[in-house]
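Please predict the structure of the following assembly.
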Amino acid sequence: MSQTSSINRSVLSETSSLTRYDLEIIVTMINDGSRVLDIGCGDGALLDYLGRNKAVDGRGIEISQDGVNACVANGLSVIQGDADTDLEYFPDDAFDYVLLTRTLQATRNPREVVSHLVRIGRHAIVSFTNFGHWRVRLEMLLRGRMPIVGDEKASWYDTPNIHLCTIRDFSKLCDDLGLKVQQALSVSRAGSARRLNSAGAAANICGEEAIFVLTRE
Amino acid sequence: MGATRDTPPIPGVINEELPRLQAELARDKPMRLDSGETIGPFTAAYTTCGHLNADKSNVVLICHALTGDQYVLENNPLTNKPGWWQLMVGPGKPLDTDRYFFVCINVLGGCMGSTGPKDTNPDTNKPWGLEFPVITIGDMVRAQSLLLDHLGIDQLFCVIGGSMGAMQVLEWASKYPDRVFSAVPIAGAARHSAQNIAFHEVGRQAIMADPDWRKGNYLREGAKPKGGLSVARMAAHITYLSETALHRKFGRRLQAREAISFGFDADFQVESYLRHQGSTFVERFDANSYLYITRAMDYFDLAAEYGGVLAAAFEATPVRFCVISFNSDWLFPTEESREIVRALNAVAANVSFVEIDTDKGHDAFLLEEPQFCATVSGFLEGAAEHRGLARK
């Protein structure tokens, strides 16, 4: 179902200041000079990179006070806020790209959040951990324990992720919301990305992470 | 304007030469006030610090709070105390006098050199008293804009201020978006809340209940409503602090005594402190000015002129905003700042918003707060980069 993408780590050397491979791929999707809203922007590494290298007019929303302080002290335009409650205040089509990287599963109402992304931005780019990955499945099957994935290495009781999903789950949500999937990638831990079409059964097993580019129909 | 560093276009802008500046404004044409009345000519007193650059692109306007004044850095000549924002303004400070040129103007209606109720009404040759027209935050800002015209300053790199200063910052950004590159409203609100109007009313009633207030004519009659103004200050001062800060500072400790006196002396340190705050305040502040300025704050409601929609006050604004609040501020709680941020988001404005974690209450913007300093300097640095203000 999936085919190997032309995107791989070797062509992404200019993104060396980014430490997350989903971000390394996402920056290649964003046009120079565009308006970008990064929801859950953390310490602002992505916004900082986009501002410096792509002349992007970037804004961020971050829930943690430490993250916000770091961003603003670094000259970035970031507000303290919550994806679940603050997106409704943004007008339609305010941004070229709205980014939600590794944050979707930490929201209380992912369906509503995704709807807002494509309303506020002409494109929404969402990255998330794929809980359909074979290692996750195996862990459940053999050990009967909730899988521990991603960089957090947090136990089930202290992970920020409360709405776990697989690539197939997310594809279905996009269908339900009538969204157009402009591009969908499954990414392995090594950072190699594969394009996937439709539901992508193989990707749902092999990809540790997914990146979706969405638009309204 | 053809100005160069060697020939400053504004006489006396370097503050070593002229520490206390005044300008007469609205000389040819009186300035219209929101009340419908007019005022003019009137005086605006201000201070400056730092150096104006050649293209006048490094001007920062500091807006002072209710009982503040124009002495941000240099010593206040009345109290001989250091300027009220000395922690923030100076060489290498977040508001860096090595990089920016600062202007701070005593508000219209104030009592530190700008025209206010204690000055002489030219029509009667007596102190204005309550004949002084009621002024608003909008009037204060209009007066400031006239002073900047007078100084030949077209655009402000930044307008910054806390509390009532934040109200002026918002008014500036809303009414003069083309003159403001960036705006930093600190511990403010887009409208004065019912609770805050209530506190102000208590203060005003304390002043007006003082027999020496003489229906506002105390200056003409050689009296001074010290008791009333002092109580007003004491009540207000409590609202500037947090419960935690008060407790940390004073607890239930007794003032210079071993045991309670079973009387009404200042047994507790906190009482003694408040009495001191009240009695020093009356030495430097005019009671009628206090009435007028608190009224201006009460009347402030930025959204009101826009059909109640705050976002409409900032439609298509080019201004870069940095909204700052303090989590222990119960006078201007974070929610008020969040309201401003939501309105700015609704027009997709460029806005940063930081809530500073501190237990020092509303007054935190006047105190040593590392996170607050880092926020202000970081935001200004980013704005300076966008404005093309190169670092020296």
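The interface with chain B takes residues 57, 59, 65, 68-69, 71-81, 86, 89-91, 94-95 of chain A (CB under 8 Å). The domain at 2-216 of chain A is CATH 3.40.50.150 (Rossmann fold).
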